[in-house]
Amino acid sequence: MLTINLIREKRELIIERLKVKNFDAEKVLDKILSLDSTRREIQTRSDSLQAEMNRLSKDIGLLLKTGRKKEADEAKEKTYTLKEEIRSLSEELTPLDIELRELIVSLPNLPHESVNKGFGAEDNFIVKEGGKIVDIDGEALPHWELIKKYDIIDFDLGIKLTGAGFPVYKGKGAKMERALINFFLDEGVKAGYNEVIPPIVVNEDSGFGTGQLPDKEGQMYNITLDNFYLIPTAEVPVTNIYRDIILNADDLPIKNIAYTPCFRREAGSWGAHVRGLNRLHQFDKVEIVRIAHPDHSYESLDEMVSHVENLVSALDLPYRILRLCGGDMSFTSSLTYDFEVWSGAQKKWLEVSSVSNFESFQANRLKCRFREKAGKQTQLVHTLNGSALALPRILAALLENNQTKEGIKIPVSLIPYTGFEIID
RNA sequence: GGAGAGAUGGCAGAGUGGUCGAAUGCGGCGGUCUCGAAAACCGUUGUCCGCCAUCCGGCGGACCGGGGGUUCGAAUCCCCCUCUCUCCGCCA
């Protein structure tokens, strides 16, 4: 959510910036500005009437105390009309506030100045490529064949238990999953992140705080009986830890890491191109979340990107880093880097991480502020997060890239975690 | 799930209709003292919104879990919701 101050002061800049996200903000902004000015006008009137009311009430109290009942009754008469006026002003104000808020909430975050305009994946900028793509011979199997061959992940069993997209990991598959989780967590802790285990079910306020609600309602599983949501990412609970909080400048940056399962309905995005582990309803992910000082949030972002880069390198996966174009970026993000790894048998790039700076967009929804010095004004923090990493596609790439006649070789860095060197 | 008690500022904890945005203690910040620190003492210390001011700031409004109501006036009375605690039940 953009701040009303920014909207008041930087109308032109917002219009310009949102064009990069292919969002035409002009009409909405003008509507907001006009509602805002009526709102303030009404509030000013209402506040001064309320002040008058408070004065009268105080007087009545004093008059009654000193036994001047008649004068008190006269004063009471005056309050009746005042009260009526105040009520009618507040009746004007309420729907206005609601409309204003809805409009402000509908504006996407401003993209960072380094973000280029574009419409989709084809317009993303390749920042860097790393690792070596090794050509596997013609008999290379895609991971959905490999998992059957070695009996490590069972989709049919998941269908029986729940439905499509809820796989069952078995034997070395399960061990591999757990190894990756532990590896990612340990690397994060080594890099100074504080490990947390949050709830994987959240309330509506949390969903709103990080921007999943109201616009992505249909993407989350909703527990209607209690009005809870299954988290689509640990970003939601871990960032919401800081909802309604005022931090001190020296608390920053806050660096948290969490492993959670993630749940996504993925409504309307099912099909042949998302076979196997490429897209699931439930998957495991280790997420890094940062709360940063506005002056240093881009340094934080860079650190997060290199942390993720170290992870994919350590797994010997060929990767590339993309800076997303305006059209491919999320509603809430200012700048996003995506990590993709090469999947040797499918012969395509798979997205395994998305690292973003949301600047103050989430912080404004969360009401997460900090104070530079005691007594000084509060200001909004910057929030950031990134996958470090999402597991299924990493697993898919590892299985495909490392397949040999003897079996699937485990990357060296992971062997201490798996306890075996090969899946056969 | 049943019965009862409760929710007040960073924390603890008073306050049951009228100068209460809220006593007091702790904590935090500033100062005095000190070579420095501790102790002691003095002062200060919430958030949001609006109006005015170039800055320091000034004035007004709202906020005592959330929402509604009664009243000239609500932290205080009434209703609904949420949460916490105690006991019972159930249970990893």
Explain what the structure shows:
- The protein is an alpha+beta fold and 424 residues long.
- It has two domains: 4-105, Helix Hairpins (Orthogonal Bundle); 121-423, BirA Bifunctional Protein, domain 2 (2-Layer Sandwich), CATH 3.30.930.
- It has 13 helices and 18 strands.
- The protein has helices at residues 4-9, 11-20, 26-65, 69-105, 143-149, 155-161, 172-190, 204-209, 235-240, 297-314, 361-366, 391-401, 415-418; strands at 125-130, 153-154, 168-169, 194-196, 201-202, 222-223, 228-230, 245-248, 254-263, 282-292, 319-323, 335-343, 348-357, 368-371, 378-380, 382-390, 408-409, 422-423.
- The strands form five sheets. The chain has an eight-stranded mixed β-sheet. Strands 5-7-6 form a three-stranded antiparallel β-sheet. The protein has a three-stranded mixed β-sheet with strand order 8-14-15.
- The longest helix is centred in the N-terminal third of the chain and has 40 residues, at 26-65.
- The protein is elongated, with a radius of gyration of 27 Å.
- The model has no long low-confidence stretch (mean pLDDT 92).
- The chain binds one RNA strand of 92 nucleotides through helix 3 and helix 4.
